[in-house]
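Example 5.3 — PadR family transcriptional regulator
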Amino acid sequence: MALPHVLLGLLQLSPMTGYDLKKHLDTSISHLWSADKAQVYRTLASLVDDGLANVKVVRGHNFPDRQEHHITDKGREVLREWLLGPNEKQAVREPFLIRVFNAGLLEPEELEALFTVRLRSLEGEIAEFNAEREALGDAAARAGDRRSFLMAATLEASIVKLEAELKWIKSTIKQLKNLPV
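Solution (predicted structure tokens):
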């Protein structure tokens, strides 16, 4: 039941439309979670049906009406219970590592290319997150509140994980060069 909790967490920040929620998923928490548009709207409908959120129509002047979703008291309680509850076992999906696991049939140049492509991708992600961290770092420090600190801490955790994978890839590329063909 993770996406409902993700959306409730965002709604506790402020009321949002489905579009706003999708935008937050694609930007401010993309390092933590992703969902497609259909998943967001289906989950929002479920939250409303379950009484965890409600919808208020905001009349538009010279633009269409907006359907803003607001977290309810029941929604806040469900979010709080989830936050305080036990950690769920995380499903592991590592598409790159599955490729590596099955890559024994590749030629040495192909194998090196497989790792090099991932290396370049990681370097790009790390650069993006570092830029985000720099921008957020100043804002989080100025805000001086727990929420801003924790948001910045999740970004830092993502950077550390990516840097660890990058280190592993560089080490593996070196080791591959010493293996017999």
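Remark. The mean pLDDT is 90.
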